[in-house]
């Protein structure tokens, strides 16, 4: 499998600051932040599956526009995979005819532009030889991470999460984890804010990495614009067996 980073920032404001979205094998999106807006129309038309970690705006911002832009040109619905709680939030607060049309009923319920598919933690969604499995996460809204399995290697994406023992255990139970994309949204001086908003800061990231028994390449995402260098300096200062680096927009990971 091949993952292309469309966006991995914790905010906007510049060429490299697009919010979280990953294009996998040309037909899958993992999260649907502002980075999706940089894709060409032909690329948008090639997307059949969207996997969402949670309902926060920086992870779903482009989903309404994506469906609106390509829905009429598609022969089959775009399938959106998320937990039932996240799908309920999207229906109630986004696709509610007030913020945006309910594309799960347009042009009719039998063949809509968008289909919502509930997923559960630990149950893989199989797309050919590929499997995508939701992992536990701990955030301010219902949330998951994902394990992407090509059959020959795995990539784990934490999603937005605080320190989560269940996610650590799930990662340690995997074999052949090539890459770990993990968020660190705040600097250590904002430790209290990180706890309150259920994100990681460098000291909490260090605690997570110290518990891992696997040895993936660790790639840090969701860095706040303007604080990214400071956060990465603090991560380096904590040391440890695993040596994280910042994930970059435009980067391609193969596994």
Automatic annotation (TrEMBL):
Membrane-spanning parts: none
Any single biological process term in GO: cAMP catabolic process
SUPFAM superfamilies recorded: Metallo-hydrolase/oxidoreductase
Signal peptide: none
InterPro entries tied to this protein: Metallo-B-lactamas (IPR001279), Pdiesterase2 (IPR000396), RibonucZ/Hydroxyglut_hydro (IPR036866)
SMART domains linked to this entry: Lactamase_B
Metallo-beta-lactamase domain sequence ranges: 18-222
A Pfam family of this chain: Lactamase_B_2
CDD domains assigned to the protein according to its UniProt record, in alphabetical order: class_II_PDE_MBL-fold
Gene Ontology molecular function, alphabetical: 3',5'-cyclic-AMP phosphodiesterase activity
Name of this chain's protein: MBL fold metallo-hydrolase
Organism per entry: Azoarcus taiwanensis
């Amino acid at each position: 499998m091949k993952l292309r980073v469309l966006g991995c920032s914790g905010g906007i404001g510049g060429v490299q600051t697009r919010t979280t979205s990953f294009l996998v094998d040309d037909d899958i999106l993992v999260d649907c932040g502002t980075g999706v807006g940089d894709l060409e129309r032909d690329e948008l038309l090639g997307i059949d599956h969207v996997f969402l970690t949670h309902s926060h705006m920086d992870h779903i911002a482009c989903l309404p526009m994506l469906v609106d832009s390509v829905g009429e040109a598609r022969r089959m619905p775009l399938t959106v995979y998320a937990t039932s709680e996240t799908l309920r939030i999207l229906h109630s607060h986004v696709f509610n005819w007030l913020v945006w049309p309910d594309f799960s009923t347009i042009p009719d319920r039998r063949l809509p532009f968008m289909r919502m598919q509930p997923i559960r933690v630990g149950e893989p969604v199989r797309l050919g030889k590929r499997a995508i499995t939701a992992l536990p996460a701990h955030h301010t809204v219902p949330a998951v991470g994902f394990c992407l399995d090509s059959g020959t290697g795995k990539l784990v994406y934490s999603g937005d999460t605080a320190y989560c023992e269940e996610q650590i255990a799930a990662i340690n139970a995997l074999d052949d984890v090539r890459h770990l994309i993990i968020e660190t949204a705040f600097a250590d001086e904002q430790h209290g804010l990180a706890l309150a908003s259920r994100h990681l800061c460098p000291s909490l990231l260090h605690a997570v990495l110290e518990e891992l028994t696997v040895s993936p390449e660790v790639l840090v995402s969701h860095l706040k614009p303007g604080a990214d260098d400071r956060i990465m300096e603090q991560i380096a200062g904590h040391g440890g067996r695993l040596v994280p680096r910042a994930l970059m927009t435009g980067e391609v990971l193969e596994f």
